[in-house]
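Batch job 17 of 40 flagged for manual review because the log was empty.
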Amino acid sequence: MDTLPRMAPTFPIVTERLELRPLTLSDMPALLSYRGRADVCRYLPFEPMTEDVLRARLTSDLGRTAIDAEGQGLTLGVRLQATGVLIGDVVLFLRSVTHRTGELGYVFAPAAAGQGYATEASRAMLALAFEQFGLHRVIARLDARNASSARLAARLGLRLEAHFVADEWFKGEWSDTLVYAMLATEWAPDLT
């Protein structure tokens, strides 16, 4: 598989309690409320975002509605169906066309923690990856100190495949990286 079919889902993607859709400039206040926080970004590969940074990103990568090339990601806002409130976002990157691999990422407002929203939204992204986009393998890479992210990856059914010790200079210090993964043959939407 060396050619890439355009990866363009139909929006919104609806789950039991959530609605996933592309982010827009109208999402700026909600995005700033969590992506602008140092505690939320502590273990993420970006610094707290300002309004200017978010505006620029929303008109480029964060506002994308499809994946057209290797290396791109599709970031979807996660809204509560009951209220329409944006509580976080999830992303699926296409890492390799040849190997049909992707990478899952997620960031949520602290107020949304502990209610299963990140699990529900991430399951929807895994379904997109395996069932619609035909990916063979999806990974989640995370800072080993991010225990809540590791628990989420395990809850999703991803297995811990690697623990790289002091492999990255990250925000002023050496950090360990954990890599979790799932193959398409292991994807069981009813069991995750």
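Reviewer: the log was empty due to a logging misconfiguration, but the result itself is present. The radius of gyration is 16 Å. Unflagging and moving on to job 18.
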